[in-house]
């Protein structure tokens, strides 16, 4: 009986991670490729260092915060090989996030510290969700001034102390708007919340969600996340959730799909 289910000798068996495989072979594959695009797209558009190969992708937007710089394996390969290649293809001695869809061995010997195992959360487009409400005015960013507002909220509201005091362009270049969509929530003319939607591989990556203290308890986090989630309404949305954000995302009908592994090179 067992021999009857074996494939013909020499037949290639798909693992789900071949470069030529369609992005939608699995939802996890879509999420991996979409986050790999997030890692490279902004750096490429800004004329900053980036790399995109068969096994990993990465981009470097700045030299002060790992949050602006990502390295993402695209296949279940030895992470040490990716780190070594990244040291050749990208600037050395720059902080970055190493974001893996797969568990990894201890990478401290390579100079990285473990940030944790946050869940990948996904929301399907056909899900019926009651839209959240807030007293903030949620606007799509269309110019450099709006992007500067988003950058300030991200740095001060997340917060990112390594980027404080804020220097314009430390996290965002205006070319970001050519590949991603940024939202800001305002109280009058005061920016208090932000999020970003990046579409790739048929999935919307929701990233850089941040809320200033003055907007907390006002539904701002849910509303600004919802704006990014529904920007590409016909495709699933995915995000790597923080502990604080998970209750908000669950109320928006995001589901925990699996845990990823995040390391930080300081």
Your description of this structure?
The protein is of the alpha+beta class. It folds into 2 domains: 23-118, no CATH class; 123-258, Gcn5-related N-acetyltransferase (GNAT) (Aminopeptidase). It has helices at 27-45, 79-89, 144-157, 220-229, 246-251; strands spanning 50-52, 56-60, 69-73, 96-100, 113-116, 119-123, 137-140, 181-187, 190-200, 203-211, 237-240, 255-259, 261-265. It has a 7-stranded mixed β-sheet, sandwiched between helices. The longest helix has 19 residues, at 27-45. The protein is globular, with a radius of gyration of 19 Å. It starts with 26 loop residues before the first helix and ends with a strand. The mean pLDDT is 95.
Give a quick summary of the entry.
Helices cover 23% and strands 27% of the residues.
- Average pLDDT, to the nearest integer? 95
- How many separate domains make up the residues? 2
Q: How many alpha or pi helices?
A: 5
Q: Report the order of strands and helices.
A: HEEEHEEEEHEEEHEHEE
What's the CATH superfamily of the largest domain, by name?
Gcn5-related N-acetyltransferase (GNAT)
Instruction: Assign a percent range to the helix content.
Output: 10-25%
How much β-strand is present in the residues?
25-35%
Number of strands: 13
| Low-confidence regions | none
- How are strands sequenced across the largest beta sheet? 7-8-9-10-11-6-12
Looking at the structure, what is the overall shape? globular
CATH class of the largest domain: Alpha Beta
Examine the secondary-structure arrangement and name the CATH architecture of the largest domain.
3-Layer(aba) Sandwich
C-alpha-based Rg, rounded = 19 Å
Provide the structure class.
alpha+beta
């Amino acid at each position: 009986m067992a021999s009857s289910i074996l494939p013909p000798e020499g037949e290639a068996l798909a693992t789900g991670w071949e470069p030529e495989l369609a992005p939608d072979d699995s939802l996890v594959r879509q999420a991996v490729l979409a986050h790999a695009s997030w890692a490279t797209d902004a750096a490429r558009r800004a004329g900053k260092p980036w790399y995109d190969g068969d096994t990993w992708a990465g981009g470097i937007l700045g030299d002060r915060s790992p949050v602006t710089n990502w390295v993402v394996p695209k296949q279940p390969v030895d992470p040490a090989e990716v780190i070594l290649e990244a040291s050749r293809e990208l600037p050395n001695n720059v902080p970055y996030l190493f974001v893996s869809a797969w568990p990894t061995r201890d990478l401290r010997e390579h100079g990285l510290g473990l940030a944790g195992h946050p869940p990948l959360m996904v929301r399907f487009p056909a899900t019926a969700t009651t839209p959240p409400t807030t007293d903030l005015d949620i606007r799509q960013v269309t110019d450099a001034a709006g992007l500067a507002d988003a950058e300030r909220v991200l740095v001060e509201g997340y917060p990112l102390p390594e980027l404080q005091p804020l220097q314009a362009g430390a996290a965002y270049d205006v070319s970001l708007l050519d590949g991603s969509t940024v939202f800001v929530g305002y109280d009058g003319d005061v920016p208090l919340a932000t999020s970003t939607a990046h579409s790739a591989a048929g999935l919307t990556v929701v990233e850089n969600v941040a809320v200033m203290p003055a907007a907390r308890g006002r539904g701002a986090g849910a509303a600004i996340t919802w704006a990014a989630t529904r920007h590409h309404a016909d495709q699933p949305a995915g995000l790597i959730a923080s502990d604080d954000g998970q209750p908000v995302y669950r109320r928006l009908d995001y589901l925990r799909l699996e845990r990823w592994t995040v390391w930080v090179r300081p």
